[in-house]
């Protein structure tokens, strides 16, 4: 194995990191004593302080991730157990947040940083789905007052053309996460009162690409509401 302490001490940061990673892998796969890592760790950290301006914790976490990915390919349980003993000593120099980002689920579970890798993976999938795939839609005017105010201003003041209006409507829906059904409701309400441009709003409805069945049910509901109000008055 040579003299790992001397190799790391006399190396640049990048070489020291490579030597340190190789040392941990070699110790994990052999009968060498684990405390060798502790003796070389200070020189490894000193090499970082000499040449690097970034976070030592983050760079150490990257190194542990690299080693973890290699050790994970070994089927020998003794190799994994020895690596975990080394890792357990080094994790005190890295925040749990960085370890959670870098290390595999199996390693995190073995270090008791997570209770169960299956539960962790399920939670991860749910969070990822909520962040990247679940669409928020604001239905109430008070939930996204600026977006609906811009929509009303557009519909009240515009005189066409319909294709340009629709581009602006889609932009408002996308930018402010407006509920398309609520937008349709507002278009209909404004169109009813702007009697001088009824053909324009009919064209807007046609371009809105709403499901015909949904639109029929929706218009029926609006007509029923109007009839009820007239009967009440």
From TrEMBL:
Q: Which InterPro entries match?
A: Tho2, THOC2_N
Q: Tell me the superkingdom of the source.
A: Eukaryota
Q: Where is the THO complex subunit 2 N-terminal domain?
A: 49-206
PANTHER family reported for this sequence: THO COMPLEX SUBUNIT 2, THO2 PROTEIN
Q: What is this protein called?
A: THO complex subunit 2
Task: Please spell out the taxonomic lineage of the organism that makes this protein.
Answer: Eukaryota, Metazoa, Spiralia, Lophotrochozoa, Platyhelminthes
């Amino acid at each position: 194995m040579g003299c790992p302490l001397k190799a790391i001490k006399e190396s640049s940061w990048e070489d020291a990191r490579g030597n340190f990673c190789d040392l941990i892998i070699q110790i994990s796969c052999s009968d060498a004593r684990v405390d060798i890592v502790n003796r070389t760790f200070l020189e490894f950290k000193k090499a970082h302080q000499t040449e690097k301006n970034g976070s030592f914790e983050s760079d150490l976490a990257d190194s542990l991730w690299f080693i973890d990915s290699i050790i994970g390919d070994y089927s020998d349980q003794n190799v994994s157990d020895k690596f975990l003993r080394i890792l357990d000593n080094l994790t005190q120099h890295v925040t749990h947040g960085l370890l959670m980002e870098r290390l595999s689920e199996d390693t995190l579970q073995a270090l008791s940083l997570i209770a169960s890798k299956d539960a962790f993976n399920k939670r991860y999938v749910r969070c990822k789905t909520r962040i990247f795939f679940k669409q928020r839609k604001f239905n109430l005017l008070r939930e996204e007052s600026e977006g609906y105010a811009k929509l009303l201003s557009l519909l009240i003041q515009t005189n066409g053309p319909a294709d340009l209006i629709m581009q602006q409507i889609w932009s408002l829906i996308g930018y402010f996460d407006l509920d398309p059904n609520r937008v349709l409701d507002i278009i209909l309400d404004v169109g009813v009162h702007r009697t001088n441009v009824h053909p324009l709003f009919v064209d807007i409805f046609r371009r809105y690409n709403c499901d015909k069945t949904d639109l029929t049910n929706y218009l029926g509901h609006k007509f029923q509401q109007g009839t009820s109000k007239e009967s009440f008055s």
